[in-house]
Every structure is written in structure tokens, then in C-alpha cells.
Design a protein that fits this description.
It is a single chain. The chain has 4 helices and 2 strands, in the order αββααα. It has 87 residues and is mainly α. Strand 1 and strand 2 form a beta hairpin. Bound molecules: FE2/S2 (inorganic) cluster. FE2/S2 (inorganic) cluster (FES) binds next to loops.
Length: 87
């Protein structure tokens, strides 16, 4: 009985950690995740102005702007590397 409870607790903690790693909230004011930002970049938002227009990032407190910009830059580099690899 105790072993089962310990197993369930450990399994739950592992699932929560995996969920938090996969889903990172960047903008807490508006509930925007890194996945949403990456999808917006894939769909053509290649500047912070375009990201702000599409997802309203930074339109409240602005604390998410630096992290959003970092994700945007990483994604743009990834896209550029993929295109260079294809060409
Ligand atoms: S955290 Fe994004 S506007 Fe506040």
C-alpha cells in the first residue's frame, strides 16, 4: 500500500515536471507560452512589433519582452540554419 502511494506520488511529480518543461509561460499577464511564440514566428512574425501585434506580448507590464525577444532570436537563427541547410 505504501509502496503504491510512493510510486503514484513520484509518477505524478515526474509528469508535472515534464509538463512544466514542455509548456513554459513567457507572458504571465496574458498567458502566452513559448510554444505560441515559436508558432507565431513560424507563421511569419519575425519582429517584436509583429509578435506584439499578433500575441499582445508586452502590452501589459512588459516584463516578458526580453524573454520573448530571446525566443524570437533563437527561432530566427533556427529557421536561417534550416534554410541554409536546404539551399
Ligand atoms: S508578462 Fe507579458 S505583459 Fe506582463
Amino acid at each position: 500500500m505504501i509502496i503504491t502511494l510512493v510510486y503514484i506520488t513520484i509518477s505524478t511529480l515526474i509528469l508535472i515536471k515534464v509538463f512544466l518543461v514542455l509548456l513554459m509561460y513567457v507572458c504571465l499577464c496574458l498567458g502566452v507560452t513559448d510554444t505560441q511564440i515559436k508558432a507565431a514566428v513560424d507563421n511569419g512574425a519575425h519582429t517584436m512589433k509583429q509578435l506584439t501585434s499578433e500575441l499582445k506580448i508586452g502590452s501589459q507590464c512588459g516584463k516578458c519582452c526580453q524573454c520573448s525577444k530571446s525566443i524570437l532570436n533563437d527561432k530566427l537563427v533556427q529557421i536561417a540554419e534550416t534554410e541554409a541547410f536546404v539551399a
